[in-house]
């Protein structure tokens, strides 16, 4: 198979980028999208040109490193999979394929198709810790968690933090990402003690990083390689409202730790 | 006490206020449509209804001021959030394909603007009587203001009918996405109700627009006469 690729090339964060057209020849239909790009890069290296920079790691859809907006869709045309799991047989022979980086103010381009996604890490860090006691391992079945609850929490926890939701969102909002993280912990007893503080801190961090707000268009859900549902965004909104109600009843200054025993 | 006002400064907080103010306006639009359907019961019913509303000036002005402040709040927040959202993606994609965003959801700013212009037109037209002074308030046989005659007169004019139908288009598009979206923003989500919540927007939009368009067209086509 042969393809014409229009790839975004940008030398550094501050330089102006542009599309450069490359031809990919003799591509096997069973090659993954990233393997196809590897082939293109081999050709560039042979010609002593700078290869196209793109991110990848596990190439089995679980690490969240790969990105790429392919023909206007983050992670390409297939639903529920990341770019590394996309195969070239999915495209008609001779197709023109446009490849762009994630585009968001919060994701500045480092080089070519590589963007800085540390904003998501900072949102995670803002979420803080969960209370887990140290010492010996807890006995099995001490903490009973309903099956449905555990499954729902796992659905949310399957987020791999790739940032496709931000890339797909018209407003470059990270709501689905934050929703997955907040819901996952708020649904489990281990995450309950800090839930009020966590949802506020993570949403504040999201605003601070320059992500947009949610327009409920659900494009994020459509491109999520883990098919995380937008129902978690409703959960996030609910958690936030709950935090507002709960917090308005708390003293702003924590009382001294010994006040209770006095 | 942590100040609750701080809670509404965030993007989600602002959206919650937008959702609540929007839902308030939706409730009004539904009652407005239902009240106006009395056109089909004749001039006696409609003029009596209008007189009843005017007989309660406190209620009338509370509603007017309340609606105006809700609309103002809704618009200010919409502008703030939209500007913020534009800033969030400084470089646009060269190729963009939507996978499931509805047409209505992608045109909220446009439908909102159509709606705003229409509301201004509507207020100037029927409330203030600026646009068509020839239909100044007359009294009907019972001494009530002849709202019925005014409406029948207005909707015989093709220009005004076109303006109102355009307004209804904007209203329908806006509500189609707005109602369902606001429920999501308020965190209302239960697997059992998802279909109901999904259907809420299109249903409310359809019913309100059908009711309003029925009034306009019934008069324009001569089914309801003066």
Provide tags for this entry.
heterodimer, A: 262 residues, alpha+beta, Ubiquitin-like (UB roll), Fumarate Reductase Iron-sulfur Protein, Chain B, domain 2, 2 domains, five-stranded mixed sheet, two-stranded antiparallel sheet, elongated, B: 226 residues, mainly alpha, 3 helical TM bundles of succinate and fumarate reductases, globular
Give a description of the structure.
The complex is a heterodimer of chains A (262) and B (226). Chain A is 34% helix and 11% strand. Chain A is α+β, with helices and mostly antiparallel strands and 262 residues long. Chain A folds into 2 domains: 3-110, Beta-grasp domain (Ubiquitin-like (UB roll), Roll); 117-132 and 139-248, Alpha-helical ferredoxin (Fumarate Reductase Iron-sulfur Protein, Chain B, domain 2, Orthogonal Bundle). Chain A has a 5-stranded mixed β-sheet with strand order 2-1-5-3-4. Chain A has a two-stranded antiparallel sheet with strand order 6-7. In chain A, helix 2 packs parallel to helix 5 (175-186), helix 3 packs antiparallel against helix 5 and helix 5 (175-186) crosses helix 8. Chain B has 226 residues and is mainly α. Chain B has helices spanning 4-7, 11-36, 43-54, 57-87, 103-106, 108-127, 147-154, 158-185, 194-220. Chain B has a single domain (10-220), classed as Up-down Bundle (3 helical TM bundles of succinate and fumarate reductases), CATH 1.20.1300. At the A-B interface, helix 6, helix 7 and helix 8 of A face helix 2, helix 4 and helix 8 of B.
């Amino acid at each position: 198979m042969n393809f014409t690729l229009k790839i975004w090339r940008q030398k550094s964060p501050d330089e102006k980028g542009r599309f450069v057209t490359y031809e990919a020849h003799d591509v096997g239909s069973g090659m993954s999208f990233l393997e196809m790009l590897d082939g293109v890069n081999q050709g560039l290296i042979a010609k002593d040109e700078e290869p196209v920079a793109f991110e990848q790691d596990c190439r089995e859809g679980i690490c969240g490193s790969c990105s790429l907006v392919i023909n206007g869709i983050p992670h390409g045309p297939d639903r529920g999979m990341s770019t590394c799991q996309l195969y070239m047989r999915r495209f008609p022979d001779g197709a023109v394929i446009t490849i762009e980086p994630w585009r968001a103010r919060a994701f500045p381009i480092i080089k070519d198709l590589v963007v800085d996604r540390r904003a998501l890490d900072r949102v995670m860090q803002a979420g803080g810790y969960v209370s887990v006691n140290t010492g010996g391992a807890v006995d099995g079945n001490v903490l009973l968690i309903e099956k449905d609850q555990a499954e729902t929490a796992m659905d949310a926890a399957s987020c791999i933090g790739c940032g496709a939701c931000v890339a797909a969102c018209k407003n470059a909002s990270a709501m689905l990402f934050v929703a997955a993280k907040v819901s996952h912990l708020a649904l489990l007893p281990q995450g309950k003690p800090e839930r009020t503080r966590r949802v506020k801190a993570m949403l504040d961090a999201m605003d601070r990083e320059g992500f947009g707000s949610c327009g409920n268009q659900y494009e994020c859900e459509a491109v999520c390689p883990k098919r995380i549902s937008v129902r978690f965004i409703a959960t996030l909104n609910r958690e936030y409202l709950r935090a507002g109600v709960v917090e308005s009843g708390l003293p702003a200054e924590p009382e001294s730790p010994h006040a209770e025993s006095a | 006490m942590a100040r609750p006002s701080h809670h509404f400064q965030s993007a989600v907080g602002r959206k919650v206020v937008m959702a609540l103010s929007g839902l308030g306006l939706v409730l009004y639009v539904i009652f407005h449509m239902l009240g106006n359907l009395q056109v089909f019961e004749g001039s006696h019913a409609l003029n009596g209804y209008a007189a009843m509303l005017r007989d309660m000036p406190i209620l009338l002005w509370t509603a007017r001021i309340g609606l105006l402040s809700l609309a103002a709040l809704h618009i200010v927040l919409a502008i703030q959030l939209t500007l913020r959202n534009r800033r969030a993606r400084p470089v646009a994609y060269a190729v963009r394909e939507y996978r499931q965003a509805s047409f209505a959801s992608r045109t909220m700013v446009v439908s909102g603007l159509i709606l705003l212009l229409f509301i201004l037109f509507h207020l100037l037209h029927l409330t203030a009587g600026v646009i068509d002074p020839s239909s100044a308030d007359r009294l009907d046989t019972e001494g009530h203001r002849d709202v019925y005659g005014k409406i029948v007169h207005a909707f015989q004019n093709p220009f005004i009918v076109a303006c109102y139908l355009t307004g209804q288009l904007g209203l329908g598009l806006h509500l189609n996405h707005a109602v369902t979206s606001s429920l999501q923003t308020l965190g209302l989500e239960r697997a059992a109700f998802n279909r109901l919540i999904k259907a809420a927007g299109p249903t409310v939009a359809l019913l309100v627009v059908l009711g309003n368009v029925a009034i306009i067209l019934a008069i324009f086509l001569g089914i309801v006469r003066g």
